[in-house]
């Protein structure tokens, strides 16, 4: 049977109707393309967010692991003044304390500059006055800790078994506890009236994958091991 007689096919459809149908079809295609693009962008963004969170957590765990490693050695040390003077280093000290490290993300870590930044907020060498200055980050004046690099190296080298799968680099600084009142941050106070006697401040920084960075500061005492712990943001 002829479909033209049944009205199923209209070869005489007006030009305006065919144009409208074409526009509707194009709009539908564009809508689907936009939805598909939005889905791709959302998926990619979620992947990046998850990756950034994973890298940040890895850096935080690396900094915490470095603290634990240093803590074991510090609690076993009989004299902390040599550590504060920089004459005694951790067994986990990979090379000289003023070396430059090439990190996996392509950046360069200068350990001496990192120490200066922690002590006075700049990469150049710090003067006594700059380290004793009262700032929002270092409000203790002459009792500000003068950070001395104590332990540093690649996280994967912390254990000899090579079972740590991490590209993070970690460094730990030691300083006199800022609660002391002797105005001498180069040695541990040892008087009954000094509230910071027998207490050290520690600062650990991890340089993780994809430029992730984490800093932890804490204070330790021989009698109460860890007195305070905080992540610096």
Topology:
Elements: H1 3-6, H2 15-76, H3 81-84, E1 100-102, E2 108-110, H4 111-120, H5 128-132, E3 148-154, E4 169-176, E5 199-207, E6 213-221, E7 225-232
Antiparallel strand pairs: 1-2, 3-4, 4-5, 5-6, 6-7
Describe this structure in words.
The protein is of the alpha+beta class and 233 residues long. The protein has helices at 3-6, 15-76, 81-84, 111-120, 128-132; strands at residues 100-102, 108-110, 148-154, 169-176, 199-207, 213-221, 225-232.
Main sheet summary: 5 strands, antiparallel
What does the radius of gyration come to?
31 Å
Measure the end-to-end span: 80 Å
Q: Determine the number of helices (DSSP H or I, runs of at least 4 residues).
A: 5
**H/E element sequence:** HHHEEHHEEEEE
- Low-pLDDT parts are none
Oligomer: single chain
Q: What integer is the average pLDDT?
A: 87
Strand order of the largest sheet: 3-4-5-6-7
Residues in β-strands, percent: 15-25%
């Amino acid at each position: 049977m002829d479909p033209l007689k049944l009205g199923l096919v209209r070869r005489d459809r007006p030009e305006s109707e065919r144009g409208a149908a074409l526009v509707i079809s194009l709009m539908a295609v564009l809508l689907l393309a936009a939805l598909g693009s939005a889905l791709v962008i959302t998926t990619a963004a979620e992947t990046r967010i998850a990756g950034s969170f994973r890298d940040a957590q890895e850096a935080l765990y690396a900094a915490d692991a470095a603290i634990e490693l240093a803590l074991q050695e510090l609690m076993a040390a009989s004299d902390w003044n040599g550590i504060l003077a920089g004459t005694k280093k951790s067994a986990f000290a990979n090379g000289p304390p003023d070396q430059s490290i090439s990190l996996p993300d392509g950046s360069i870590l200068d350990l001496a500059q990192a120490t200066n930044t922690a002590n006075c907020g700049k990469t150049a060498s710090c003067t006594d006055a700059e380290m004793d200055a009262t700032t929002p980050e270092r409000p203790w004046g002459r009792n500000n800790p003068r950070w001395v690099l104590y332990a540093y190296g690649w996280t994967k080298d912390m254990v000899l078994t090579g079972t740590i799968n991490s590209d993070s680099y970690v460094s730990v600084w030691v300083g006199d506890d800022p609660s002391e009142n002797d105005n001498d941050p180069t040695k541990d106070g040892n008087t009954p009236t000094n509230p910071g006697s027998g207490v050290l401040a520690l600062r650990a920084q991890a340089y993780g994958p994809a430029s992730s960075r984490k800093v932890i500061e804490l204070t330790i005492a021989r009698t109460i091991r860890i007195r305070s712990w905080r992540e610096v943001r």
